[in-house]
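Following up on my earlier thread - several people asked me to post the actual chain instead of describing it. Fair enough. Here it is, all 358 residues.
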Amino acid sequence: MVFRRTFKTIRSFIVLGSFCCQLSRVSAQEIKIDDSVPSDIAQTMRRDLKNLRKSNLVDNDPETRRIMGLDVLNANSFNQWLEDRSVYMVGEKFNLETQVYAASSSWSFENPGELPEMDPGKKVAPGGKVQTVMTNLGPALYFAGKLNNTLIGLRLTNGDTISMTSPRLGSFQIGQGLFSGKETIDPAKPDALSNSLSRLAVYFHEARHSDGHGKSLGFFHAICPKGHPFEGYNACDANRNGPYTVGAKAMYTFIKSCTECSVAEKEAMKLIAIDSENRVLKTKAASHSGVDVGSPEIIQTLLDTYKLLAQFETDPAKLADLKKKIAELEAEIAGLTGTSDSQDTPTTDWDAAPEGQR
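Reply from S.P.:
Thanks for posting it. Predicted structure:
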């Protein structure tokens, strides 16, 4: 009965969309792909990770290093950061309900009784149908175990087992949106590097959920406030160093470093990064354009993107809409003249130090 209640808790956390594990028979230094991942998708994901290891990343943003806690920014440090927070990738049809078990009923969790506050929010995305891109199961399993004082284990399809002793042992479950949603920059070229880099930004977003302890455990998402495009949904961050910030920082790093990406591909990647930045809650109220886009630099990037799109738009109605947005953003920039940076400062950083031992 206790474990059934624990599993119900796990499911409720996964619905929130924000989500560790001690290996028993698998290396903790390399991300593994479970047999539940279809072979063609597994091959693509291995190529993604290979692209990361061989990339020539441009290190010209101290804020990215600060947010991610890196001394240097290069392919090795980025890859190590991801591997430190990720253990397994499982398929969309991986049956979590039949694969979890009680590994110990007497486990001593760190920071007992200190848990992050959760708000269930809404269950569906704006516009109706939900399309999951990727979910980090690990922190949700660890959190549920801590809440019920039960160390949870996970059986992989290939026979490996994991005991959830830390949120740092992330287990990423692939969703249908990873290969069919906006993360696909060039649908006509499935093997395009831009597609791979876009998915990698998602991996980094999910890996941030493997961080935190006590109140910051799991870096769970927050409810988007009134006036936000995702108002009422668990689709924002109440911190300035959370999953959406990390995902955006990773994407900008990839954009700067991709010498074979076209201008159009880079602009599409920028839009994804901007969308992530828009999910980071600010202290300032929503902008005149109806979207809290944050700093003048972000607004300028969005403005440049709309101007680029307008050059190639042939539909009169869509062109008129783009021109309206351009005018609103130009007014936004003009309105920011003379304002202090503190008005655009997001909420505080959360402590990313992990809980438990991997």
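The chain has eleven helices and ten strands. That should answer part of your original question.
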